[in-house]
Design brief:
193 residues, alpha+beta, Aspartate Aminotransferase, domain 1, six-stranded antiparallel β-sheet, 6 strands, 46% helix
């Protein structure tokens, strides 16, 4: 147990008991407990294996390379269609966690083996993402904007591509592009402040 992480488990939370059960199970598997992204993160030889986090409807163990796990039990969930590598085991009760303990441990041990093997998830390249027509038009009409967009890191470009593409209407996509232009010119990503 890492005392830096205790605050997460001591916080009064809807999932407090579930978090404690998950912590016990994960630590039984010999992983190192660290604090990353404000959450308990469990590593094997400094490589992220999983983290524990909670949401309104469930708490979860998120496997960083979950897409590589066999998932024979069909319990791993892809949070959204844009999440490429991570997968979650979701829980809504302590009883569910206790009942699934052998399965949870099997997933953890498999994730450790994936890490030992040095296998990585083949991530989609930025140029494989669809560029909305409104963005393509803005890039063609404004060479300075095109240069600024191309100067962004691939991750920042993907963030904007996803943000723009999620709008269902053309006028909304155009409004999002215009609103984000100043940040793009500053070299900032969509979530940067």
């Amino acid at each position: 147990m890492n005392p830096k992480v205790d605050f997460f488990f001591d916080n009064d939370s809807k999932w407090q008991e579930e978090y404690r059960q998950l912590r016990r199970i994960v630590l039984d598997c010999g992983l190192t407990e660290e604090l990353k992204w404000g959450k308990p993160c469990y590593t094997f030889k400094n490589k992220n294996i999983l983290l524990i986090h909670g949401f309104k409807e469930y708490c979860a163990a998120l496997f960083h390379k979950g897409a590589l796990l066999k998932n024979e039990e069909k319990l791993l969930v892809q949070q959204t269609e844009n999440v490429q590598a991570a997968r979650q085991l979701r829980f809504t009760s302590t009883g569910e966690i206790i009942e699934l303990e052998p399965t949870i441990k099997a997933y953890i041990y498999e994730a450790i083996e994936v890490e030992k093997a040095g296998v990585n998830v083949e991530l989609k390249k930025t140029d494989e993402y669809e560029v909305p027509g409104e963005l393509q038009e803005a890039l063609e009409e404004n060479p300075d904007f095109k240069s600024a967009f191309e100067a962004l890191t691939p991750g920042r470009q993907r963030g904007y591509l996803l943000h723009f593409s999620q709008a269902k209407q053309s006028k909304t996509r155009m409004a999002r592009i215009e609103k984000c232009m100043p940040k793009i010119f500053e070299g900032k990503g969509f979530n940067d402040r």
